[in-house]
Every structure is written in C-alpha cells, then in structure tokens.
Specification:
This protein is of the alpha/beta class. The protein has helices at residues 7-49, 56-59, 171-178, 206-209, 213-258; strands at 54-55, 73-80, 86-93, 96-107, 112-121, 138-146, 158-160, 163-166, 183-190.
Length: 287
C-alpha cells in the first residue's frame, strides 16, 4: 500500500474524499434546504390565498416588508409616479424574453412603495415595446407583498429607449437609481384587473410543478458521494492486484533466468516423470 504515498495517488485520494465530503456536508444539505424553502413558500401562498386582503399599513407599518408577511394580499391607495418607473430585465414568461415593470406609488400616508405592474414581452435583444402607461390620479390597488430580490448580476442600471432598466425587482435599487425618497423596502405584486396592471405575474403553486424535485437532487448527491468512495476502494484494490501480479511475473522470470525452475537433470520441475503423484502412485518410480 506504499503506492498511496505517491503524489499522484495522494492527489487522487484527496479529490475523491473531498468530493464525497462536499456531497454529504454541502451539496445534499443545500438541496434539502431548498426543498424546505419551497415547501415553506407554498405554505405561505396557500395561507395567503385563503386570507382576504388587508390595508397595506396594517402589515407594513414601518419601512420594509417583513419576510413572514410575503405573499399576503393587501390593498393600498395612492398615486402612480411614472417618472420613477423602471423595467426589470432578463425575465422569461411563457418561454419568451420579458421584462417586468416597476412603478412606484406615493401612498396617502406619504410613503412610497414599488408596484410590480406585471410583465411585457421583449425581443431577443431586449427591445422594449410600447406598453400602457400607469393611470394618473388617485388609485386603489390590490396585490401581494413581496420582499426585495437580490441583484446578483453585478451590472449597473442603464437607460435604453427612454426606459430605466435594472436587473432585479429591488425597491432599494429603484429608489437609488431614481432618487425617490421614503421608499419602502419590498414591493407589491399587482393582481389581475387592477388599475395599471399589464400581464400579471402568475403565482404558480410550486408543489404541483415538480414534487420533491430538490429532495431528489439531494438524494442524487448522496448517491454520488457513496459511489465516489466505492470507486476509490475499487481502484485501490485494482492497483494492489496489478502490482501483485507484476511481482509474481517478475519472480517467475528471475527463476527462469536463474534455472531455478529446473531439476538437477535439466528437466522442468513441473514435467518430472518421477514426481510423486504423477503416475497415480505415492512413491517415485525406481531408477
């Protein structure tokens, strides 16, 4: 087993063991965690669907939407601020490129909240088509509370074709890019039939689309980790057998070269006619 101390084998063992450890301590728990989050999200949606809308100020009395209140239905009254509107780029709706339209609403209590009016279909080059502007004057809206997304693109907001465009539904990024004060952290996803709504963002039940998807991925990672360890043992055993076979072949070759495989008369040991048992008797034949 001293071959395991060679650099190549050390690197191989470290990689395989590291992969197995990652499967059991990082990758599988990560997928199980995502499964738990998906189930929690679905539970929140189910509860929100059976709870009638309440005033926005009742659930959001301060400056941000609480994560525990996400998906709850609320009503709010105020005035759209189309001059602070932005498009959320790189969305996909029904398999087609799309953008979501975020338009702030100045509430009657003086605060501002971002409202996701829905999606618009864009071209493959993210070409923005004409879409209806938000209505002017006071409006009363119904929608769902959502917490801000995290922008992982690393890209700065840009302006194309007269539209400010960002890469996440993030009220903080919207407020910074437009200079809108008193913006509540979080936003409201507008329901169908509301003033200013475009194509409503669907609230799709997660469990009906792919039951236990993340959990099955987690089990796959556990299986991959076990296979890696089994494969490591197999390759080590295979190397041991190969080395043993080479040693035996070398020993046989040395014996042949030295004549140790012959008797004093020059006959090969294995073909001696007087070897015990070769003619069916227990004693050698007399000379």
């Amino acid at each position: 087993m001293r071959f395991l101390l060679r650099p190549g084998w050390i690197a191989f063992v470290v990689v395989v063991v590291g992969f197995a450890v990652a499967c059991y301590t990082l990758l599988a728990p990560w997928q199980f965690g995502r499964e738990a989050q998906r189930e929690a999200q679905q539970h929140a949606i189910d509860v929100a669907n059976t709870t009638p809308p309440v005033p926005f100020a009742q659930l959001v009395p301060g400056s941000e939407v609480a994560a525990d209140d996400e998906w709850r239905q609320v009503t709010l009254s105020g005035t759209y601020l189309p001059q602070a509107e932005a498009l959320v780029r790189l969305r996909v709706v029904d398999g087609k490129p799309a953008s979501e339209v975020l338009t702030p609403v100045r509430l009657d209590d003086g605060r501002t909240v971002a409202v996701d009016r829905g999606s618009i279909t864009t071209g493959d080059a993210q070409t923005v088509p004409d879409f209806p502007a938000a209505p002017s004057g006071p409006v009363t809206l119904t929608g769902r509370l959502r917490v801000d997304e995290t922008d992982t693109s690393g890209r700065a907001p840009l302006t194309e074709a007269g539209h400010l465009q960002i890469y996440a539904a993030d009220s903080r990024q919207l407020a910074k890019a437009t200079g809108t004060p008193d913006m509540v952290e979080g936003y409201v996803q507008l329901a169908a039939g509301q003033p200013g709504v475009l194509t409503p963002i669907p609230v799709t039940p997660a469990t009906t689309a792919a039951p236990f998807t993340n959990g099955s991925y987690a089990l796959q990672w556990l299986t991959f980790g076990a296979i890696a360890i089994i494969a490591l043992g197999y390759f080590i055993r295979l190397e041991v057998l190969q080395r043993r076979g080479r040693r035996e072949r070398k020993a046989s070759l040395r014996d042949a070269l030295a004549g140790r495989d012959l008797d004093p008369a020059g006959d090969p040991v294995e073909h001696r006619p007087d070897q015990p048992g070769t003619d069916g008797r227990d004693t050698p034949a007399p000379r």
